[in-house]
Specification:
disordered N terminus; alpha/beta; three-stranded antiparallel β-sheet; globular; 3 helices; eleven-stranded mixed β-sheet
Amino acid sequence: MRLFLFTVFLFTPQLALAQTCPAPLAEARKLVLVTADTMTSTTANVQRFSRASPSSPWTAETAPVSALIGHKGVAWAHAFRSFAQSGEPVKVDGDKRVPAGFYKIGRPFGFGPSPRPRYMRIDEGMTCVDDVRSPAYNTITSRAKVGWQVSGENMWRVPEYRRGLLVDYPTNRAARAGSCIFIHVRRPEAKGTAGCVALPEPQVEALQDFAESGAVLAVLPRQALDRFKGCLP
């Protein structure tokens, strides 16, 4: 009985911390942590972590690698704006900032065929709608459905989308909260992205493997890491 009580005492604080961490991080067992040095950085460190359960400590799966992020740096996603401190921007569509927050990593995608579960092949006509006037805002659809008057990224024409991962980014059309957030291939000559995370193609492929059974993407400026003590590695 004493041993049982000691075990409960030992693990209860960790369980409490897990329960107070932001969703979907609280229940995550795999994590892709993107850390920018400042709110205006155009590059960030990316590192993969895993844990046995939501109450277990995180273990590093890889060393940090460099990624390209927004041309204008980082801004808090509208859904996570409560974590912003004075002077830190909140993302709006078109600001060329990567959104800080926590998101489930979605389906893998690319130009070629793939046996990966849930894989989405980018075919001619596929577009991600960034037009706040459209009900299809922040969704991937086709030009055949939405027409050519609607603003969107014509994904089959973007070389960086030859391999990537969707990010389950929360939609808020009324707030112009941002759209079409991906992890995708980095062009060697690129200086920043429109709001995505870009990595060399082998790293993107490795992330597709890592996230196959589910993973969470965390994007944060280094100055905000202490706001999530007990939640992050």
